[in-house]
Design brief:
Two copies of one chain form a homodimer.
Chain A: H1 12-20, H2 23-33, H3 39-46, H4 50-62, E1 66-70, E2 78-82, H5 84-87, H6 90-103, E3 111-115, E4 124-128, E5 140-144
Antiparallel strand pairs in A: 1-2
Amino acid sequence: MRRASLDSVNCSIAQTLDVVGDPWTLLVVRDALWGVTRFDEFRRSLGIPRATLSTRLRDLVDHGVLEQRPIEEGATRSEYVLTRKGRDLRPVLVAMLQWGDTWAELPTPPVTLVDSTTNESLDLTYVDQTSGRALRDIAVGRRINTHSASAAEHSATG
Amino acid sequence: MRRASLDSVNCSIAQTLDVVGDPWTLLVVRDALWGVTRFDEFRRSLGIPRATLSTRLRDLVDHGVLEQRPIEEGATRSEYVLTRKGRDLRPVLVAMLQWGDTWAELPTPPVTLVDSTTNESLDLTYVDQTSGRALRDIAVGRRINTHSASAAEHSATG
């Protein structure tokens, strides 16, 4: 499951994949977003071997996505809680969930995202805050920021 | 780089990862979104071995994310073009790009997304279309859709 590091590539997408490009890793983050904190809960939820889960949790702690802390003062057992950096992965998972809802051959979307304070369904869409238009209505291009040291060396940074 | 299939898991995120959970695969999709269509262009852009790229392209064609077609009528060489299903991955890549821009240790964001017709910078944010609120201001929960056959079997579907 390990792959060559992409972290030298001058591209924010490649950098993100270098942290969360492993499928199990993103599923750990998904579970953490749903409130899972304990090793055994992750293992039960994901059905992965202990060693695999240990590695993924350690990588996520090393990358600052999860914080590992004792379940209570002085306890030896740990819990794993998303940091700000980890919670910021929410849009990635929302985008994946929506794509799967649309394109996976599931009989029905397994979950609906809701506002947890009101329990109202959410209808999340990428919108350009400047123009108010939805991403789906925009032809997106990119401007390569030439003050970025090695941008010019890559024909398809991003 | 291959992993156990996740496609039996009743979760839209897992289903998405089953198609695009490999980092190279998402980088191929990224390049395709930027207009890359030819094998050699992908190879040059990504710097990956021919065999690896061949496998990724074939998988993406098999999954209906890319369409393979002759570069011109009767030609033997192919080009690879995103299908509707493939273009629908744009939000996943936008979300990854934004996370990398925020959290990767790059000196500056390598690219800025623009409206390709006006060349204006885009400020893309997930918004709940019903309430108009930004995702970052919402505490998101989930409702498990019990009419989904095996939803109840998984403690952390999504």
